[in-house]
TrEMBL record:
The organism's place on the tree of life at top rank: Bacteria
Function: Involved in DNA repair and RecF pathway recombination.
Record Pfam families: RecO_C, RecO_N
Family: Belongs to the RecO family.
UniProt record, GO biological process: DNA recombination; double-strand break repair
Protein name (database record): DNA repair protein RecO
Tagged with keyword DNA repair: yes
InterPro entries linked to this entry: ARFGAP/RecO, DNA_rep/recomb_RecO_N, NA-bd_OB-fold, RecO, RecO_C
Domain annotation DNA replication/recombination mediator RecO N-terminal: ranges: 5-81
HAMAP family reported for this sequence: RecO
Length: 247
């Protein structure tokens, strides 16, 4: 009979109280997609690994496969991102939004190929937040655009999303997938500055030199576009996104 034990790396997305001392964990693993597991006794002061299973931490886990929920049997910390992220409100709210997005995008394991890519993208974004490599809001916007792109919803930031006419263009439509030319402009399209389109494209591609070269005045407009875009495709507003402080 095949062993029910397996091992994987994971980011802790969320935890729920389960009884007096147990916790229900939502994990994004490297090889098994999203996993829900029980960590028994982690709320007790003498728990061997309670502090390691905090949201945003990167861990190496051994789990026992269960009928409905798996059980954590061993855990080792690979990167303790929780500490520095939770010590900074801006980083914390951005990380919470990213974790919520990752949870939504990986709920259906077989919905699309790319769970491993979503895992790697999230690890990189949490690393950037924990080490303050870039402003938290920019890391969040870049992550949201790139995670949606991996899910098959990459916005067009230059050519027209409907007819393919070469850009740059002055309108952006959340419903139609990005930039629109004058001929394809739809009701509800957003008029955007050319610098905003450049910033959107740079955040999507991870081109940080271009991100920093864009005027700060357009960041607010871009953040609003990104928020609207992710809300449209996830079909409801992310609860954590309302807590993010925007410049």
């Amino acid at each position: 009979m095949a062993s029910k034990l397996y091992r994987d790396e994971a980011v802790v997305l969320r935890t729920y109280k389960l009884g007096e001392a147990d916790r229900l964990l939502v994990l994004l693993t490297r090889q098994h997609g999203q996993v829900r597991a029980v960590a028994k006794g982690v709320a007790r002061t003498n728990s061997r690994f309670g502090g390691r299973l905090q949201p945003f931490n990167l861990v190496d886990l051994q789990l026992h496969k269960g009928r409905n929920l798996d059980t954590v049997t061993q855990v080792q910390t690979l990167e303790a991102y929780a500490g520095p992220i939770m010590a900074n409100y801006s980083a914390y709210t951005c990380a919470a939004t990213m974790a919520e997005t990752a949870q939504r995008l990986t709920e259906e394991v077989n919905a699309y190929e790319g769970a491993n890519s979503q895992y790697l993208l999230l690890v990189g974004a949490l690393n950037a937040l924990a080490r303050a490599r870039h402003p938290s809001g920019l890391v969040l916007d870049s992550y949201l655009l790139r995670s949606l792109s991996l899910a098959g919803w990459a916005p067009s930031c230059f050519d027209c999303a409907l007819c393919g006419a070469k850009g740059p263009h002055e309108y952006f439509s959340v419903q139609n997938g990005g930039a629109l030319c004058d001929a394809c402009r739809q009701p509800g399209s957003i008029h955007v500055d050319s610098e905003a389109m450049v910033l959107l494209g740079a955040l999507l591609s991870g081109d940080w030199p271009t991100v920093y070269a864009c005027p700060q005045l357009v960041r607010g407009q871009v953040s609003a576009i990104v928020s609207a875009y992710v809300t449209w495709h996830l079909e409801r507003r992310l609860a954590s996104l309302s807590l993010v402080e925007r410049a």
